[in-house]
Amino acid sequence: GKPKMFFIQACRGNKPDPGITVGYDEMDARNNGQKLYSIPISADVLVMYSSYEGYYSFRHPQRGSYFIQSLVRQLKTAEDRNLLSILTNVNREVAIMYTEKEMCTVVSTLTRRF
């Protein structure tokens, strides 16, 4: 099916993170060449949260959310990278670049690369 993607910028708790230092694809062969198959209703959904459950989500007073800033930056420079690679880069950037610690979370039931 068509992917459904949600990017949620919101706190998911009241704790600060202190941080620490430091179509068809290759799966078709499994279907014995059959072209028709069914997938679960919940397939092809991706949700990315700006923070881990139980923790704050931060924003800059003038520039806004660190998560949204990074997501936009990564999407603009995506070129030929697949979606999960882009979102992994968002995770890394948000986790490392800012003084306030924040860890984005991705929940995915995608059945192919987008």
UniProtKB/TrEMBL annotation:
Annotated Caspase family p20 domain residues: 1-15
GO biological process, one term: proteolysis
Domain Caspase family p10 positions: 35-114
UniProt xrefs under PROSITE patterns: CASPASE_CYS (PS01122), CASPASE_P10 (PS50207), CASPASE_P20 (PS50208)
Pfam families xrefs: Peptidase_C14 (PF00656)
GO function terms (MF aspect): cysteine-type endopeptidase activity
InterPro entries: Caspase-like_dom_sf, Caspase-related_regulators, Caspase_cys_AS, Pept_C14_caspase, Pept_C14_p10, Pept_C14_p20, Pept_C14A
Family (UniProt): Belongs to the peptidase C14A family.
PANTHER family: CASPASE 14, APOPTOSIS-RELATED CYSTEINE PEPTIDASE (PTHR22576:SF41), MUCOSA ASSOCIATED LYMPHOID TISSUE LYMPHOMA TRANSLOCATION PROTEIN 1/PARACASPASE (PTHR22576)
Name of the protein: Caspase-1
Taxonomic lineage: Eukaryota, Metazoa, Ecdysozoa, Arthropoda, Hexapoda
